[in-house]
Every structure is written in structure tokens, then in C-alpha cells.
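A further point concerns the way the authors explain their paired sequence and structure data. An entry of this sort, consisting of the sequence and the corresponding C-alpha cells, reads as follows:
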Amino acid sequence: MWYPGHIKKAKGKIKTYLKTVQGILELVDARAPYASRAYEYEDLFKNKERIILFNKIDIADEKNLQFWEKYYKEKGYKVLKTSLKKVSIRSFLTKIVYKSFPKKFSELRVMVAGIPNVGKSTLINSIKGKKALRVGNTPGVTRGLQWISINNQFMLLDTPGILYSEIYNKKMLYKLILIGSLKPEKDEKEFAIEYGFNFFKEKYPEIIKNALKSDNIPEEYPEFLELFAKRRNFITSGNNYDIERAMNTFLKELSDGKYGKVVYDYPEDYDVLK
């Protein structure tokens, strides 16, 4: 399991800084609204006003988001939805996020939290400028905590990506790999793609068709990877299909939402929801 030491340190800093904020803005990937809260949110953020922001709704199947929106609202959360790369973030923060938190002081201070690659850096970069942070599908590139001024009444505290120290639910693990929030080990990469392939065959066959640019869906995932490599002309020096490159490209493009809209989370995937 990939679990950098800086994530453990970040959790300690979050607890230290918690007393300086009035609320928490938790970003989740709308494609995995439950899996992308894979951290100790009750322990970290208890007794704080929290808003859950479903990000990347432009690449999520909104029909299957309805359960999760209702689920979180019934838990007492406020829920917002957006695609941070598609909106004016400053306007979204001032007109929607700011107004969604109760005002107890003259200045609102909110902590921004979430797992890697859910959009925290996109949000912060839009305020500080493009060169403020390194952004991309490399999980955990933001390392420190920093205050960002939105206006004279609104401050954000940016935090690094956080995760459980261990993820025992394999479906959750694979989903985090598929949305680009977790850097997989080699065997995890293969298992995640196999899980994704079988999931897409059942729920979203158009994802496979779009990846292969073909209406024919292979029976098994090794055949899918071979066809994917063939379609992209990924050939090794030994004139074999470059399956490793095929896996990496598929995961990257999948996490970017290039093959279509999807929601990976279903309530039956988690014992606690049954």
C-alpha cells in the first residue's frame, strides 16, 4: 500500500490547526463519493461544520449520484456539486461556499481537505495563480498547509491529501486507483484494471467501447489490454504488445474521464451501508 510519511504528518497538523477554523470543506470525487472519503473524517473533523463538495460532476454519472447526495444529507452534511475545472472558482467560493457556512465571526476560516487528486490543488491554484502549486494526476504532490485569502472576510486553509494508513476493502482500494487518487503497486494495478473491466462490462460497457474505439467487448481483461495496446500501437523492442504502457495509459485516461461518465460506488459495496 502506498502511504507516504507526509500524509501521517499532515493528519497531525490538521488536528493542530483545526481550532483555527470554523468549518471544513471536504472535497470528494463525484465518481466515488464514498470511497474518496477514505480517511478518519470523524476523528479528524469532529464538532466542526462540514460541507461535502462533489467535484468532477462533469465526468460522473449524476443519476447514480442521487443516492449519495441523499445519504450525506441524511447524515447532517450540506452537499455541494461542481466541476472545478469548468467554473469560475472564485465566484463559486464567494457566492456558494461562503454562503453555505454559518457565520459566527467577522471572518470565515475554512479548512479544505480530501484525498489526493480530488481537486484541492485546482481550487487553490485558481486563487493563487497557476504556478502556486504543482498539479496533476500524481497523488499527494501538495505537501504543506497554507492559508489562502479569498477576500477580507473569507480564508481557506489548504491541506495535503490524506488517506487511511491501510485500506482493507479491496473494492475501495481499486476505486481509488481507477480515479487516480492512489498510486498502485504493480499487482494492485493489474487487480484494479481487472476489477474495473468487469465493473464496466456490467454497469458501463460504453467505457470499454470508448477505450478501444470499438463496439466489440472482449471476454476477459487480458484480451482488453492487448487490444488496447494494439489500438495504440504500443509495441516493445521485442515486437510484443507493451502491456505495462497500455495499463498506465488506460488508468491515466480513465482517471481524466476521457471514456465517459461513471460512478463506481454502490451502497451494496460496503457492509456498513447494508
The mean pLDDT is 90. The radius of gyration is 19 Å. The domain at 184-264 is CATH 1.10.1580.10 (Conserved Hypothetical Protein Ylqf; Chain: A; domain 2).
